[in-house]
Amino acid sequence: PQNVVIVGSGQAGYQAAASLRENGFQGPVTIVGDEPGLPYQRPPLSKAYLTGKTDEEGLLLRARPFFDDRGIDVLAPERAARIERAERRLVLGSGLSLPYGHLVLATGARNRPLAVPGADLDGVLYLRTRADADRLRAQMSEARRIVVIGAGFIGLEFAAVAAARGVEVTVLEAASRPMSRALSLPMSDFFREAHEAAGLRLVFGAVVTRIEGRGGRAVAVETAAGEMYPCDLVLVGIGVMPNAELAAEAGLAIGNGIVVDAHLLTADPAISAIGDCAAYPSPHAGGRASRLESVQNAVDQARAVAARLTGSPAPYAAVPWFWSDQGSLKLQIAGLAVPHEETIIRGDPASGAFSVFCYEGERLLGVESVNRPADHMIARRLLAAGLGVTREEAADPGLDLKARAS
Ligand code: FAD
C-alpha cells in the first residue's frame, strides 16, 4: 500500500505502526486515536499506576521522539467517524478526510455498562482508560468500604490493590466462582481461597439489581437476594464490548467483534482488524472465531499485519498467552485452556505455586500457572511446537518438562 492509516492508539495500533517501520515500510503511517496523548499501556492501570508506583510518563509505550523520528503521525484526540470504502477514505469527527491504501482497525473494546438503577450515581466507576484510573485513584484514597462488581481479572486486580491498603472490599459476582469464563475450576478455587485469606470478601451467585444513592452518590449495592452492601465507592468490572460500530456501519461482518480471516483481513482486502476488537479463527481453538483481550494478542496480531503489508504474509498462529497480577499472586496462562474436559495439577496448590494442565481428549489445550513462571514458558514452547504432554507426564513431578520442550 501507498500509506497505512490505523484507527486506535492502543497497544495494537501502536505496535502496527512500530512494526511497519521496523519492517522498512516507507509510506506515510498515521494513527488516529480518540484518547488524548500518546499510546499507553493498560495493564499498569490496575496495578502499578493505581498504587502510584508508575506515573503517566511511565505508562507510555514510547515517548514523543520515537514517533517523530520514525515519521509516525499520531492524531489525538481525534475520532474516526466513518469509513468510505469505495473511495478508500477515513472521515474523522473533525471533518478531516484521510485517504488510505490500507486501513487497520485497532479500536479495542470498551466497558460493558452495568444496566441497573443507580448505575449512573457518583462513585460508580469503571477501569479501562487512563482517565478512568485517574478518577479511581482520586476517589479511592477517601474510600473506606468498596464494592467491586464482577470477579474477573480487572475486578480482582483492583480489589487486591484496595484491600492491601486496608480498605474493606467486597466483591459481588453473579457466577459461582472467580474468573469463571477464563480459568479452570482448580485455579479458580485457589484464587478464591487466596483472596479470602488476604481479607477480601467474595460473594458468589450475587446478581446486582440496584445501587442506592444518597445526595447523588452511591452508598450501597443491592442484590437479587435482597442483601444490601454499604459502600462509598463501587468499581464495575463486568467485561467489555468490542468497538465494532465503525466496521459495522461500513458494511463489514461483525460477530463477537470485527470478523477477520486467518490473515486478520476483513472481507475488504484494504481493511484489517487486530487486537481486542477482532474475532479471528484461532488454530489454538480448533479454528473457532476467537476474540482475545490481551497484550500478547494485540502485539502479535499487529506484527502479523505489518509483516503482511510489507510482503511477508502468513496465517496468524501465535500461541495466546496472558498474565494477571493479583496481590502477590502471579497468574499466567498459555494457550486457550477453557473450555476443557479434564485438568491435571502439577505442583502443590498448598505451596502457593502450581500449574493446571488443561486437556480435551488427549490434546493439551493450555496451561495455567501461578507463581511458576518456568512452567508457563515451557508450556508456551510446547504449544508453539505442537508438542503434547500426556496427563501422566504432566502429573509426574520428576519429569523434566524443559527437556521435553527443547
Ligand atoms: P485498546 O487498548 O482498547 O485500544 C483501542 C483504542 O482505540 C482506544 O484508545 C480507543 O479509545 C480507540 N478507539 C476506539 N474507537 C475509535 C475511533 N472510532 N476513533 C479513534 N479511536 C478509537 N492484558 C494482559 O495481557 N495482561 C494484563 O495484565 C492486562 N491487564 C489489564 C488491565 C486493565 C485495567 C485493562 C483495561 C486491560 C488489561 N489487559 C491486560 C488487556 C490489554 O490491555 C488489552 O488487551 C489491550 O490493551 C488491547 O489493545 P488494543 O489496542 O486492541 O485495544
How does this structure look, described?
The chain has 406 residues and is α/β, with parallel strands linked by helices. It has three domains: 4-110 and 241-309, FAD/NAD(P)-binding domain (3-Layer(bba) Sandwich), CATH 3.50.50.60; 113-238, FAD/NAD(P)-binding domain (3-Layer(bba) Sandwich), CATH 3.50.50.60; 328-405, FAD/NAD-linked reductase, C-terminal dimerisation domain (Enolase-like, domain 1, 2-Layer Sandwich), CATH 3.30.390.30. The chain has helices at 11-22, 48-51, 56-59, 64-70, 130-140, 153-164, 185-197, 245-249, 295-309, 373-385, 391-395, 401-405, and strands at 4-7, 29-32, 72-75, 80-84, 89-92, 97-99, 102-105, 109-111, 124-125, 145-149, 168-173, 201-204, 208-214, 217-223, 228-230, 233-236, 240-242, 254-255, 257-259, 271-273, 278-281, 289-290, 321-326, 329-335, 342-348, 353-360, 363-370. The strands form seven sheets. The protein has a five-stranded parallel sheet with strand order 3-2-1-7-20. A five-stranded parallel sheet has the order 9-16-10-11-12, with helices on one face. A five-stranded antiparallel sheet has the order 23-24-27-26-25. α1 (11-22) runs parallel beside α9. Residues 7-13, 32-35, 42-43, 45-46, 79-80, 106-109, 127-128, 154, 243, 246, 275-276, 293-296, 298, 322-324 line the site of flavin-adenine dinucleotide. Residues 7-13, 32-35, 42-43, 45-46, 79-80, 106-109, 127-128, 154, 243, 246, 275-276, 293-296, 298, 322-324 line the site of flavin-adenine dinucleotide (FAD).
